[in-house]
Amino acid sequence: MRMIRALVPGLLLWLLVGLVPSAQAQTPGQDPAGQALLEALDTRSYADKGEAIAALVASGDERTRRWLEALLAGKLQRQEDTGRFIVVLENRGRHWPVVDALSFEAAGEMSRRELDRIGINNALRGQLQSTLAVLDLRVDDVGARREAARELLGNIEAAMLPPLQALVADEADGEVKRLLAQAIAIHRLEQGDAAAVEGLAGSLNPEARAALSAAARSDDAALAEAASGALADIEQKLKLNRGVETLYFGLSLGSVLVLAAIGLAITFGVMGVINMAHGELMMLGAYTTWGMQQLLPGQPGLALILAIPAGFLVAALAGIAIERSVIQFLKGRPLETLLATFGVSLILQQLVRTLISPLNRTVVSPEWMSGSLMINEGLSLTLNRLFVLGFALLVFAGLMLVMRRTRLGLEVRAVTQNRAMARSMGIRATRVDILTFALGSGVAGLAGVALSQLTNVGPNLGQNYIIDSFMVVVFGGVGNLWGTLVAGLSLGVINQVLEPWAGAVLAKILVLVFIILFIQKRPRGLFPQKGRAAEG
Amino acid sequence: MLASRSWLSRPLHERSTRLFLGVLIAALAVVSLLNLALPAGHPLHVSTYTVTLLGKYLCYALLAVAVDLVWGYLGILSLGHGAFFALGGYAMGMYLMRQIGDRGVYGDPVLPDFMVFLDWQSLPWYWHGFDMAWFALLTVLLAPGLLALVFGFLAFRSRVTGVYLSIITQALTFALMLAFFRNEMGFGGNNGLTDFKELLGFDLTADATRLWLFLATGMALALGYVLCRAIVASKLGRVCVATRDAEARTRFLGYRVERFQLFVFVVSAMLAGVAGALYVPQVGIINPGEFSPIFSIEIVLWVALGGRGTLYGAVIGALLVNYAKTVFTGVMPEAWLFALGGLFVLVTVLLPKGIAGLLAYRRPRRADPDPSTTPGEASA
């Protein structure tokens, strides 16, 4: 890849500029053209070196890029005795491995004493960097071109303008074109051209903003006014961006809360059971993801996808075990259930500590989940959070479907509303209890799978979420899935809105206090159950 | 006046209270005797370390009594009593910090070490007054009491009960834990308050001080027990039990349920605060860990194991669980959480009435004397 990137600009230049010297890679000593180009670089005057670099680019030699890179890194050197140009591969120690600068064939090791470096100064460094960027602009790969164009923002020399403008005209990709136009506009603005402000209006690049704010302080009144106008516009846009970002982080946090709380909402709302081990069921889901990845090394994506049903199953089975062994004996005693399930949670935590490790395990994110979605220069959304948000909504929709459209959902709702009546209508309430608990626990497992992509997987994973998820359920109103969704997302957003203003810990405290006060006002949450079912 | 004396002293005529006080005082006497009278090498000698450990257990026992008062007799499962305990502890800790004076590492006559470390120039306003013992002791009662008053007023007025109340008390202590972890709060952050030197002029490391602290804790437990007994045996206590069993019905009978709940809740919080205040000089440190929700749930387990709604059961439970904890964490630390978790499950499923329930089962049941028929009550 790197080879191609290095070769292509030379070829393109060769076609574009039309200078056709017979400068192909040749054996050392048989390449007078290349030798001459490099000779020109070895001069005391930095101005001459600058011209030599320009000549190098103009020559269209395909080795230009490698030479320039070596020069920039200080690795283009000359053997004192023979006058042979070489490129140092690694300049550590006394003897450096080198390659011939013309043929790029290995030339053994040379002592640092016998070598002369071709020095550069800061001005040349800038010229080299922008020259390399222009070279990069001629590659075929659009991504690389964008990268190169971004590199040019605020780094343009006057000498580069003509070739750049030619490039802008030829450029096919809109994004590259826009970036180049901005880079040129920044340059013009720095030269005091008020008309360039227009080209930067609404741009979110830090470089554009820096240039504009510099211009806004200039003595030229017209320029300063135009620049500060554009700047104010940009600030406005940035504010909006930050708002969107906060909202996104809030929704992301909220989606985690929803995932954690929604299983709880089912068991709590439907069965009146306080499952303090809910967090540990999430932990089991997260560990299932980790286990899957251990089973399928090298395929984190497949493992993650398989972990979704596996995590659900593991947590659901654990849930059934808890229901059969503990909860069924505590019918109608919610406070005792709370204590017993807390005991279960301690046991599960310690079990994981003893069997696996007390240390955190890393779960790898598959490639398609890492990285981020770039909306504009000021705003990019991390993909894993986006996936989790989508996953949370999917799980929610799935649960809604189960509750509204299936036989199980119907029976669950019937048992919730009036257990005795439902039983006399022939619904096997015990079976419904088991299935409900399995469903709630399974959803906790799903939450754990999702969480494994966002945080460390460790024995304390569940504990960190249990209080928050109870808050969500209580805030939303018990027995109401919509309430859980609204409560989870809004608590997430509230938390994120408060955070920059109050700090993470204080924001959390404020949210807790807010909920405590809210409960006083509306003891049954945002969406209270109505009718007879409400007086449990 | 006469009525109030009979109200407070009535428990002293109960058989169970006399038994409890007798056992407690005997135990205190025996431990002191074994500590003082026997030489250090003697097999029956109780070392000062053990005395302090027992003192710690007694603090927990008082805390458990406070929790049992609200849970056993009022039906309020507070998962946040650790917060009141810790607040009392912090009040005491602040007093002890001020007592250090210029003997701290940095030798600042006024500022505690951690403030010097954080480069604070002056004492925050809420640290003033803690150089006076009476003020600190008042705060030990008032800080948890006020918090319970405000929190309880809001919660009971809007009839937040049952599971909801449990969850928001848990949120309360969780929020306080997060707050106290912050250095900016001025309570020593993560490290809390420690490195105490003396209490009321007595050296905290001296054996005699340790024994006195142990005895004081025992006395506090005795007084707290009698107070709680007096409350639950009074007419007010009867209303509490009625509230526990049928809140709506009690309300319809014309009782302002929330006032009873609030009163008992505040008393319980203050008792927890006292327990915390006695705990800190014996353990030598108070940090935000005491606010952690797990600690609060553990307290509830002590009560559940001992048997709720008996008071003495809470004491038994606290002593047993904490003794087991000391043994387990010393011998096989990994097994402790298994044991604790298993205890939670076993007690709730198999022993809903706790150890006290077992004791009552072995004894032929006798009806308790009904307090509402005694003459003193009728005139109240």
UniProtKB/TrEMBL annotation, chain B:
Its main location: membrane. Signal peptide: none annotated. Pfam families: BPD_transp_2. The chain crosses the membrane at residues 49-67, 74-97, 132-156, 163-181, 211-228, 260-279, 299-323, 335-361. It is a multi-pass membrane protein. GO terms for cellular component: plasma membrane. GO terms for molecular function: branched-chain amino acid transmembrane transporter activity. Keywords: Cell membrane, Membrane, Transmembrane, Transmembrane helix. InterPro entries: ABC_transp_permease, ABC_transptr_urea_perm_UrtC, LivM-like. It is found in: Cell inner membrane. NCBIfam families: urea_trans_UrtC. PANTHER family: HIGH-AFFINITY BRANCHED-CHAIN AMINO ACID TRANSPORT SYSTEM PERMEASE, SLR1201 PROTEIN. This is Urea ABC transporter permease subunit UrtC. It comes from Halomonas nitroreducens. The gene is urtC.
